[in-house]
Amino acid sequence: MKIAVITGASSGIGCEFARLVNNTRLDLDEIWVIARREDKLLNLKADLGEKIRVLPLDITDDNSILKYTELLRSENADVKLLINNAGYGKLGDFDTLDNSDNKGMIRLNCEALTVMTSASLPFMNEGGEIINTCSIASFAPNARMTVYSSTKAYVMSFSRALRFELKSRKINVLAACPGPMETEFLSVADIKPGASHTFDTLPRVSPYKMARGALKASLSHRAVYTNRTFYKFYRLVAKILPHSIVMKMAKT
To answer: Which pLDDT belongs to residue 149?
Structure first.
């Protein structure tokens, strides 16, 4: 059974990934959508059709990972595309954030992504693709998003190193790096109007265009994808200038 697997599929760019994969990857037998909110996933299935398989799992939980692995095995799955999209952030000085959030960002953004990839790779073959939703926050440290930007730096490093390792298996790994999007991420992160001058002024990224561009870049075997000229320029600046200067420029 040829499948795509998408985590964090209940809203935002995860939904857009699911819609685009459903419409463009016609060789797939099923698209497995994963999130904790089953009602949101069922609504997505109602919109997209029977090819969608709803898996209401918490990927930070070992039992959920075990269920996912057992399902891959029982269905004799061939994972053609894995999109590790689940993640969240919080805005605020490190010492003012709740410790559960600091720990939670690391568990979901880093640990769960790593474990999902490890569980899926034995079921991936030549031509497989992995897309890890990263962030422009991975380009340089971000004050007031200290833990979040650190987790995304991990995702970037993990993606690039894993891509190198998997070249011999002809499996591509892409780090997709969006800028701010008008999704649930902003409300979960407590990024309200006026909370951050930087976020108030940054240009917004279309979740649909970002997902479409990332899927196209993955098919082209690219390592990193960022859309909008503004953020491509920021990525270049972050490579050239010392991060102490970049942090002042990007102060939230």
So the answer is: 96
SS3 224: strand
Q: Based on the number of CB atoms within 10 Å of its own CB, is 164 exposed (0-12), middle (13-18) or buried (19 or more)?
A: exposed
Cα gap 243→57, rounded to integer Å: 38
Residue 184 has pLDDT above 90, yes or no: no
Mean pLDDT of 28-51: 97
148 included as an active-site residue? yes
**249's tokens:** 């420029």
Q: Under the phi-then-psi rule, with left for phi > 0, alpha for psi from -120 to 50, and beta for the rest, what region is 242?
A: beta
For residue 31, give the amino acid letter.
I
Are 8 and 57 in contact, with CB atoms under 8 Å apart?
A: no
pLDDT tens digits, residue range 194-222?
Answer: 767 677 788 899 999 999 999 999 999 99
pLDDT mean over 172-192: 84
Residue 174 CB-density burial (10 A; 0-12 exposed, 13-18 middle, 19+ buried): buried
Q: Which of 68, 148, 231, 234 is catalytic?
A: 148
